[in-house]
Amino acid sequence: MATNSLQRLKRNDALAGYGFMTPALIVFLVFLFLPIFFAIFVSFTNWNGITPFRQEGAYEFVGFENYYNLLIKRGIRQKDFYNSLKNTVYYALGVVPFQTLFALMLAVLVNQKWLRGKGIFRTAFYFPSVSSSVVISLIFMWLFGKGGIVNIGLSALIPVYEPITWLDDSRGIIHELLGLFGITRATAGDWVNIRLATLTLWEWISGPSITLLLIMILNTWTTIGSLMIIYLAALQDIPEQMHEAAMIDGANRWQVFLKITVPMLTPATFFVVTLGLISTLQVFDQIFVITSGGPAKTTMTIAYGVYQSGFRNSDMGLAAASALVLFVIIFVLTLVQRRFVKESLYS
Known about the structure:
Helix content: 55-70%
Radius of gyration: 25 Å
Order of helices and strands: HHHHHHHEEHHHHHHHH
Largest sheet: 2 strands, antiparallel
Number of strands: 2
Number of helices: 15
């Protein structure tokens, strides 16, 4: 009898748990899993995104043709994709390390006991993260326009300065740095003309354009506030006794920070870097508002390419294929990063 009562109690608890989970599961099913499965199906079709999907003849099943055109078949689609992949990689490599470093520095700063007015500083640093990215992008355009505040200020400070079209400059940063040493496409040698996935090696090593670099700075500034909050919570979770014990043993503040604080922040760093990778690999709104992929497609990213294929070129099948390739890239990078974090935690 007691056994039956215990089993009945466990069954009732399980039913109650599933009952509480049901609303969340329905939301996930309707707004997450079904769209994912639909996107996978659309990527195997030539649907234009305009004709009602249930209408007869709205689409044809084309198999892996969209993926073939995107990744293998030489042409404008493949070149645009790999160009956007190059820009996205440079964007992520430039933004993620700096936003992580600056977020950690700000978190350490506002966590100091001697700092007065902590609430003011925390609010000021966090404010850009909760502001509209579109509004901030428009302000950024006003600042860095050819007749903007930045050029006016530099002209006042440097009489020989000529205003630069910051937001319409397709020159690659690495190309410009190489040019300082006399290395150009004409002098570098024949190896720079070797093509890898449609683009030449010289195009692959261009680096971010000057315009993309400014957008990277904008994104770094607007995201460090929210990442600072994550680091701040992690810092306050570290027992103060560990720091005090290290100081008693003769460690200075820098050694305490490197040997105790930073290793204890490893899980938070993994979370921060993961968020950074996902957001930078999916960057869209700043690109859409400021440059629309220009100049010369040097700011076109994969996410913007998805929008362009689906809503401008009415090729929703290619857009879905691009989005799924981006998902695979993000998923693989997250797994790789997770592996490195685990090794650092248990080494």
